[in-house]
Task: inverse folding
């Protein structure tokens, strides 16, 4: 999966009725030029998107820009040139930015405040008025560090201009210190699901110019109008092919697709050394480490696969296909187990397929913590022989989807497998007692080899926990505590589709030596799964540590320097500041790598040495790279922090904020502000931090002289839990005034008070319906109005992360295909008094639960659940269900 950038322009008329004449239609505003330029040095990309918009009409018109940035990028600058005057943005802490906004409003200066929400946190939106017969110029700049995956650095730029552009140019200039050994510029791609591969056809329209230095290349892409039209038509067709069956696209989506060109991709790699490379410049260093010619470590992989009811249909078929490919990629000395979970948990025994296999007795145990109080059969890991892989594929082909989502017990069992594998000596006696065959010799060999295996858990789910323990914070705490010691497993989470709780999965993996990836629910999901597995399938080094002498490096400035595992095709980077009097850097790098025969591991140790140069290299962006990577790691530390560890979390946040302000990065802690003084009239708006979110952020100015006054763009960390879908910003035209706004894809209805005696038109709200929830048959559930979002057809709650529970307008409420599943987060005692305190509770759609008619939003937050991983359910006493 590649993170994405995109650009889009939306044209809106803001012409006052006083100047509009019916006999003279408006001449539409035009996007005349779009230039994207990326400077990449040492894998650090600095990108500028420069756009020119011309208004050929005599009357002012509004233009709205949207640009999707990768989750790993920070906006580093924004400038607007309107009516010949330049307005530069600057970065402020969020609370200070809000004070600036409030002060502007109180003084009668136009202002807008926006806090980016949910999964659109990487979306930058700006709206501005373009005066008649003038050209506006917008320059947005952002920076990102290119991550190496499967042996390639990917730099991706989405081209969604919203219209055909007469002058469209993309230039990517790469300058690396090492020789560029691979370069691939594939055909424009039509999605962000899977990284491009070297098998993709070369882009015939891309011009590649190599510099005199073998580490320098310039790629230029300038599609003319005919080529843009051709690409847009291909995009539309391929988007239809990739879309989920039964998914209806809106007119707005279809319009955007008709002008979307796709994703321009540049892939490259550089000459790598087992000893790594160290670069120094102006008091900073960057230590790049991507070992390539080592023997890989053998691993023990536990596949934890969700087969709950929501996986039914194409998802389970894609899981079959992906696992077939993944199993074929296992190395001969690897071992593996397969854990399937839905309502319950099963560890599959390869000997129980239809194929004949040697008898091998299972280990029976009752896990220490098992919410369902069921016994689980733990089967020792199987070696990845051709015979065992074939058996595993037979089992995979029989996986079927049904039931709930028991994440807690599934992960608990997976860790039991890892722990029991380490303690196989204990099991040898148990096996000998239960089996007539001599297994002692077999287990002695297995025990010795197992100690040298690298434990990996691949955890795939498409939903949230609905069975056993459902509190995600408690699940994370328990699993993290259990997964401890030198042999703790790396836990990689795959969030399949939009219903998976990505915030939970990200935090779970961050706390357990892994990371989370989003698998898009599209036609190529099986390829996405296989592609992800390749990233973690070949551990080259484990227990890696970078040591730097204290007299050479400022210890408190060094970024993350310990890594549980480094996989083939990846790269780790350590950055920091150099002591003023240091003349050289002599670090020590240690770890363990695999032996030639795949059994055992060998200690790795290198002592690189590099002199500290006095001269400055302008193209080495080490200081900004240090700031960028340090902020990212501090935010990860904050997001992964235990709720009880507030001191460490707070310290990480403060450090990240200080760096973001110093280097002017727009992060989850800072805001981008643009101010123009002397504007008149203001509109007060509420922060979107408040839930439920209303939708429109706008500010008014006189029709005679319109200009943006104060604009604040907030960026939050990617809220990876379910969130309301993006909605187009629709700044209101307040009476005869024009509007300018910065928005995040959601809109809200503002009020317009008078400021300093200047009358400001009010936007009258529409007459309310008899009940805000009438369309969803919630007339008798009046408490829902406080958390109802009609634009999203959903209830929105904040439960340590935003949850969006969809509503239906159908008179027949949705039900789980496998029947109503039991749940534990039942309604409070007052609501279930009629049913009895100890009544069994089941998860049902809200309108089916009589006991939920008179609860509070807070009580619903603690007892909500999902029906079909989407709809608003409640944990309801069974005898209170379907009471008319």
Result:
């Amino acid at each position: 999966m590649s993170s994405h950038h995109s650009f889009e322009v939306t044209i809106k008329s803001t012409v006052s009725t006083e100047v509009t004449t019916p006999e003279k239609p408006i001449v539409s505003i035009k996007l005349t030029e779009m230039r994207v330029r990326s400077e990449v040095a040492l894998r650090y990309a600095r990108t500028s998107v420069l756009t020119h918009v011309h208004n050929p009409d005599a009357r002012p018109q509004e233009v709205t820009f949207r640009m999707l940035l990768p989750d790993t990028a920070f906006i580093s600058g924004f400038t607007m040139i309107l009516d010949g005057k330049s307005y530069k943005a600057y970065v402020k802490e969020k609370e200070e930015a809000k004070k600036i906004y409030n002060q502007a409003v109180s003084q009668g200066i136009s202002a807008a405040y926006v806090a980016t929400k949910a999964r659109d946190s990487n979306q930058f939106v700006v709206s501005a008025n373009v005066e008649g017969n003038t050209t506006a110029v917008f320059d947005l700049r952002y920076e990102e560090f290119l991550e190496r995956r499967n042996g390639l650095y990917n730099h991706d730029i989405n081209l969604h201009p919203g219209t055909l552009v007469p002058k469209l140019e993309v230039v990517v200039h790469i300058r690396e210190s090492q020789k560029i050994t691979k370069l691939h510029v594939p055909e424009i791609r039509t999605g962000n699901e899977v990284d491009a591969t070297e098998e993709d056809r070369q882009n015939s329209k891309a011009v590649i110019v190599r510099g005199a230095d073998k580490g320098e290349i310039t790629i230029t892409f300038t599609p003319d109008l005919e080529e843009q039209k051709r690409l847009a038509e291909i995009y539309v067709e391929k988007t239809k092919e990739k879309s989920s069956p039964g998914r209806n696209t809106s007119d707005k989506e279809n319009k955007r697709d008709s002008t979307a060109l796709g994703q321009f991709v540049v892939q490259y790699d550089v000459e790598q050394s087992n000893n790594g490379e160290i670069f120094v410049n102006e008091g900073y260093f960057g230590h790049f480490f991507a070992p390539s010619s080592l023997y890989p470590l053998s691993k023990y992989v536990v596949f934890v696969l969700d087969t709950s009811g929501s996986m039914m249909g194409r998802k389970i078929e894609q899981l079959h296909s992906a696992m077939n490919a993944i199993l074929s990629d296992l190395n001969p000395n690897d071992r593996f187990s397969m854990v399937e979970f839905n309502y319950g948990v099963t560890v599959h025994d390869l000997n129980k397929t239809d194929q004949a296999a040697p008898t091998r007795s299972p280990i029976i145990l009752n896990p220490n913590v098992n919410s369902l109080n069921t016994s689980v059969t733990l089967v020792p890991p199987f070696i990845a022989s051709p015979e065992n892989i074939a058996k595993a594929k037979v089992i995979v082909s029989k996986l079927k989807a049904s039931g709930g989502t028991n994440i807690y017990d599934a992960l608990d069992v997976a860790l039991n497998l890892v722990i029991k594998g380490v303690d196989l000596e204990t099991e040898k006696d148990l096996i000998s007692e239960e089996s007539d065959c001599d297994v002692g010799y077999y287990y002695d060999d297995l025990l010795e080899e197992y100690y040298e295996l690298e434990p990996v858990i691949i955890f795939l789910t498409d939903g949230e926990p609905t069975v056993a323990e459902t509190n995600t914070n408690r699940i994370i705490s328990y699993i993290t505590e259990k997964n401890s010691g030198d042999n703790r497993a790396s836990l990689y989470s795959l969030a399949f589709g939009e219903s998976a709780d990505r915030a939970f999965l990200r935090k779970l993996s961050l706390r357990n030596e892994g990371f989370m990836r989003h698998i898009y629910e599209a036609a190529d999901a099986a390829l996405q799964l296989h592609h992800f597995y390749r990233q973690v399938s070949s551990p080259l080094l484990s227990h890696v540590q970078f040591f730097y002498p204290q007299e050479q490096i400022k210890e408190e400035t060094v970024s993350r320097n310990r890594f549980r595992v480094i996989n083939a095709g990846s790269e780790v980077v350590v950055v920091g500041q150099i002591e003023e009097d240091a003349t050289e850097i002599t670090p020590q790098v240690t770890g363990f790598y695999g032996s030639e025969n795949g059994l055992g591991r060998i200690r790795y140790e290198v002592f690189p040495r590099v002199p500290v140069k006095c001269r400055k290299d302008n193209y080495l962006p080490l200081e900004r790279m240090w700031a960028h990577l340090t902020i990212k790691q501090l935010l990860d530390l904050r997001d992964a922090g235990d709720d009880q560890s507030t001191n460490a979390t707070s310290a990480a946040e403060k450090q990240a904020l200080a760096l973001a302000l110093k280097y002017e990065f727009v992060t989850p802690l800072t805001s981008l502000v643009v101010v123009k003084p002397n504007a008149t009239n203001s509109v007060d708006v509420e922060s979107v931090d408040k839930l439920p979110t209303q939708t429109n952020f706008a500010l008014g100015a006189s029709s005679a002289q319109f200009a943006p006054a104060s604009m604040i763009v907030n960026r939050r960390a990617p809220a990876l839990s379910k969130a309301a879908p993006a909605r187009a910003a629709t700044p209101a035209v307040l009476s005869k005034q024009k509007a300018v706004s910065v928005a995040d894809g959601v809109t809200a209805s503002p009020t317009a008070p008078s400021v300093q005696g200047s009358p400001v038109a009010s936007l009258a709200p529409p007459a309310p319906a008899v009940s805000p929830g009438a369309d969803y048959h919630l007339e008798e559930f009046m408490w829902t109005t406080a958390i109802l979002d009609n634009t999203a057809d959903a209830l929105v709650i904040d439960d340590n992360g935003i949850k969006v529970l969809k509503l239906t307008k159908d008179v027949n409420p949705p039900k789980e295909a496998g029947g109503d599943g039991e749940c534990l987060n039942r309604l409070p005692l007052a609501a279930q008094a009629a049913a009895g305190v100890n009544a069994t509770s089941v998860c049902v759609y809200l309108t089916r639960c009589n006991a939920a008619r008179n609860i509070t939003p807070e009580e619903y937050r603690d007892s909500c659940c999902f029906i079909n991983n989407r709809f608003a359910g409640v944990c309801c006493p069974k005898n209170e269900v379907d009471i008319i």
